[in-house]
Amino acid sequence: MHELSLAENIVKTVLKTDGVTVNNLQSLHINCGVLSGANIESLKFNLELVGEQSGLEDVDFVIHPTPAKLQCGCGYCYNSDSIFCLCPQCGSSDHEVIDGGEVSIEFVEIIEDG
Ligand SMILES: [Zn+2]
What we know:
The protein is an alpha+beta fold. It has a domain at 2-66 and 100-110: hypothetical protein PF0899 fold (2-Layer Sandwich). 25% of the residues lie in helices and 33% in strands. The protein has two helices and six strands. It has helices at residues 2-16, 40-53, and strands spanning 25-33, 60-66, 68-72, 77-80, 95-99, 103-110. Strands 2-1-6 form a three-stranded mixed beta sheet, covered by helices on one side. A three-stranded antiparallel beta sheet has the order 4-3-5, with no helix packed on it. Helix 1 (2-16) packs across helix 2. The two termini are 34 Å apart. Zinc ion binds at residues 72, 74, 76, 87, 89-90, 92. Zinc ion binds next to loops.
């Protein structure tokens, strides 16, 4: 369900973008933060579903998993695929999440002179 509402929001947002229409949208690239809790397979499935309902059946939906950015208590910043990890600098598991919990539109490709 979470992925369905994400997919609906993404499609709605992209169709509101200047210059993007149902007819000229070619592909949609999405960043999916590994800590967002979104399942990539499920998100892709739902995007295709919502896309089809919105007249975007020929659009390529490409999802890029993006690593989380963490900052350790020692001040060191590092990327990780998981929140359960240790600081490569000092070995501590005490960290703050700086980035990586978001699903966002990276870029869209449109067909020129559609
Ligand atoms: Zn550290």
